[in-house]
């Protein structure tokens, strides 16, 4: 029997498979290089920081602020934790600051809990958000009628649709226009938080300092429960890599369409009204409103002082949260860019914002392949052609540079909530480069689900990320401690109420404390420095 035709067929099959694999390898490495070029572009942008020196400097005035607190079926203790942190910020601010919870009118359990909290926190106000069929919404419809920047009200399949989806954005829309019509003067700032947020003591002062130069002020986020579970550690690393490393570069001296982070931020009320307020038809409001403000020549200033939040303690709850982020990213970067009036080049620049998110999965596949090709080169074996080998070496070098930057940020920022080097080292060991690549591959799940939500126009109902009061102990730790200032050496002397020996630690502007836990001297700018 003549087997030569079979051997030729095998040779052809082997050659075809080799060619396909080589092409896939080349595509992965070229895509990987492309993601590094985009990340390099972001890291090359200037950061418009709001520094501690800016916050400590004397100001001619402190703008009035209204802080909105959108809540839905929240546990009373979770809200109490947030109010404790807000109380210290209230005490530290020389200007006017109103705190207004905005639950839905039919959320009876949350309304009852807020009423009880008002007896503990006299600064807390409550504004119940009615159904959109209520006449109280008439000012919103009138404003949108007269403002073409509210493009969703004027064009598209939801033109003049008043049945806004029941989620956080609807609450913010109602409260924005309710206050815009009543607040005296035009210098008010508007902020909002999530139910689980804990703010630094200088929260309002950061806004006052930043508003002197920028139109939008954004605090970065760090998770307070980053060692609760392995899942919490990996979810916390998302904020280390994004908030702590890349996101601040979006400020870019006003030259790049920026996102906002959806909490821990400040706008001018008049700016929000001018650009049409929040788009209620997106899964998340923060990417789109940031880019729309940028299109209207508003600038972003970023503070490295963190807003403390909690992250999901299980991987599945992390998927629920992240799929909504992904859906919102795709929605915001699609039709809204054209409808808000961006040019082609502006739209392309805005869509670069999605690449770091998409590159997470590419990291998990591109880096091992690049390391393999580089190792083969070191061992004297040419695994792929020379151009692809050179490309792989470049990608390994770029990956090392990015990972070094990210893990350095993780080390520094973990120190904001973890008290010992051992705890910080434990966190970094959990999210080591090998394990983090596996986690980034896991990101494929929320990416696929979020993209399918975008295609199917879903995600308009508020699917809550369950809040578990994960920062309960972190905030109350400062309530239990007696804070005393040693004026001679400018140190913050921290000692337990039971008379235990005091520990000297540098005075910091980022303190999470309950009302009255810090003496007036501890708030003085020179001691903060």
Strand and helix layout:
Blueprint: H1 4-43, H2 52-56, E1 65-69, H3 76-92, E2 97-101, H4 108-120, E3 124-126, H5 138-145, H6 151-154, H7 168-180, E4 189-192, H8 203-210, E5 216-223, H9 230-246, E6 265-268, H10 269-275, H11 286-295, E7 300-309, H12 315-332, H13 335-339, H14 344-351, H15 355-378, H16 386-414, H17 421-430, H18 433-442, H19 444-455, H20 472-480, E8 481-486, E9 491-496, E10 503-506, H21 525-528
Parallel strand pairs: 1-2, 1-4, 2-3, 5-7
Antiparallel strand pairs: 4-6, 5-6, 8-9, 9-10
Helix pairs in contact: 1-15, 1-16, 3-4, 9-16, 12-19, 15-16, 15-18, 16-17
Labels describing this entry:
single chain, 529 residues, seven-stranded mixed sheet, three-stranded antiparallel sheet, 51% helix
Q: Which structural category fits the helices and strands?
A: alpha/beta
Q: Ranges with pLDDT <50 over ≥5 residues? A: 482-529
What would you call the shape?
globular
Strand ordering within the main sheet: 3-2-1-4-6-5-7
Please give the share of residues in helix.
40-55%
Q: What is the number of helical segments per DSSP (H or I, 4+ residues)?
A: 21
Describe the structure.
With 529 residues, this protein is α/β, with parallel strands linked by helices. It has helices spanning 4-43, 52-56, 76-92, 108-120, 138-145, 151-154, 168-180, 203-210, 230-246, 269-275, 286-295, 315-332, 335-339, 344-351, 355-378, 386-414, 421-430, 433-442, 444-455, 472-480, 525-528; strands at residues 65-69, 97-101, 124-126, 189-192, 216-223, 265-268, 300-309, 481-486, 491-496, 503-506. 51% of the residues lie in helices and 10% in strands. A seven-stranded mixed β-sheet has the order 3-2-1-4-6-5-7, with helices on both faces. Strands 8-9-10 form a three-stranded antiparallel β-sheet. Helix 3 links the parallel strand 1 (65-69) and strand 2 (97-101). Helix 1 crosses helix 16 (386-414). The radius of gyration is 25 Å and the shape is globular. It is built from 21 helices and ten strands.
């Amino acid at each position: 029997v003549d087997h030569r035709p079979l051997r030729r067929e095998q040779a052809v099959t082997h050659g075809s498979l080799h060619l396909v694999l080589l092409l896939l390898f080349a595509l992965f490495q070229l895509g990987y290089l492309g993601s590094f070029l985009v990340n390099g572009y972001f890291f090359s942008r200037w950061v418009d920081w709001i520094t501690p020196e800016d916050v400590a400097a004397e100001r001619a005035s402190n703008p009035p602020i209204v802080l909105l607190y959108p809540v839905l079926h929240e546990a009373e203790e979770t809200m109490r934790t947030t109010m404790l942190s807000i109380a210290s910020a209230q005490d530290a601010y020389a200007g006017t600051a109103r705190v207004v919870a905005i639950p839905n009118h039919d959320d009876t359990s949350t309304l009852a809990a807020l009423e009880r909290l008002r007896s503990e926190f006299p600064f807390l106000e409550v504004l119940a958000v009615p159904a959109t069929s209520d006449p109280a919404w008439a000012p919103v419809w009138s404003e949108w009628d007269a403002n073409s920047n509210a493009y969703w009200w004027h064009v598209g399949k939801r033109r003049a649709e008043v049945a806004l989806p029941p989620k956080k954005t609807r609450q913010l829309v109602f409260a924005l226009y309710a206050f815009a019509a009543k607040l005296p003067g035009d210098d008010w700032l508007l902020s909002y938080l999530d139910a689980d947020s804990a703010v630094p003591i200088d929260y309002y002062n950061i806004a006052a300092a930043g508003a002197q130069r920028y139109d939008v002020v954004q605090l970065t986020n760090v998770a307070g429960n980053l060692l609760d579970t392995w899942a919490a550690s990996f979810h916390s690393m998302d904020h280390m890599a994004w908030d702590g490393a890349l996101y601040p570069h979006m400020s870019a001296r006003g030259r790049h369409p920026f996102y906002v982070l959806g909490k821990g931020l400040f706008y001018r009320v008049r700016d929000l009204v001018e650009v049409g307020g929040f788009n209620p038809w997106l899964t998340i409001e923060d990417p789109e409103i940031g880019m729309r403000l940028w299109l209207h020549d508003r600038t972003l200033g970023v503070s490295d002082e963190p807003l403390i939040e909690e992250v999901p303690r299980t991987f599945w709850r992390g998927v629920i949260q992240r799929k909504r982020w992904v859906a919102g990213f795709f929605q915001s970067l699609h039709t809204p860019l054209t409808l808000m009036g961006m040019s082609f080049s502006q739209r392309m620049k805005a869509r670069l914002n999605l690449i770091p998110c998409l590159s997470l999965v590419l990291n998990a596949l591109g880096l091992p392949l690049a390391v393999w090709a580089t190792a083969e080169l070191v061992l004297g074996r040419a695994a792929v052609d020379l151009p692809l080998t050179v490309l792989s070496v470049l990608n390994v070098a770029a990956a090392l540079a990015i990972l070094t930057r990210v893990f350095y940020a993780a080390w520094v920022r973990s120190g904001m909530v973890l008290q010992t080097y051992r705890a910080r080292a434990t966190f970094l060991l959990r999210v080591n480069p090998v394990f983090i690549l596996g986690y980034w591959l896991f990101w494929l799940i929320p990416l696929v689900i979020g993209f399918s939500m975008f295609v199917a126009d879903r995600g308009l109902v508020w699917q809550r990320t369950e809040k578990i009061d994960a920062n309960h102990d972190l905030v109350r730790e400062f309530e239990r401690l007696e804070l005393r200032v040693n004026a001679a050496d400018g140190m913050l002397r921290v000692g337990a109420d039971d008379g235990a020996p005091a520990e000297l630690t540098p005075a910091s502007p980022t303190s999470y404390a309950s009302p009255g836990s810090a003496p007036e001297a501890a708030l003085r700018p020179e001691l903060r420095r």
